[in-house]
User: What shape does this take?
Amino acid sequence: MSNTKSVARSCRRHFPLLIVLLTIVAAGASASPQTIDPFALKRPGWNSLLEQQDEIDSVIDRESQLLYPARYAREWAKAGIKGEVILIVWLNQDATVDRIEIERSSGYRELDESAEAAARQWRYRKILVDGKALDALRVPFDFRP
Assistant: This one.
């Protein structure tokens, strides 16, 4: 019975991602970069750091997120290892990963490395802010059983 609950919980968790993925595929991915209003960005001085989750979701390729999720091992959950990791992902002009910084650590090396490994494998879309390619985005990871 617990296996059935686990499957149902997993389906509920991933169903919105599948809907978004299907919507993107049905709409056809645009080759031209999106433009985001720079006034929607929060931090002054970092003109092209995305912090809003809906803006972040528009930059990260959903299919690559599904293909390369952050690993959260069962033994970590059983050992009580949980937490949130916040990364700053710096992008090159062609929207490839330049470097990744851990803005806030979970306190567990395993979780920090798992988040970083996933973010490195994802694909990103080129976004223009004030006519320039996006420099960085803040990506949160929540590791909870």
User: Anything to note?
Assistant: The chain has two domains: 1-30, 32-143.
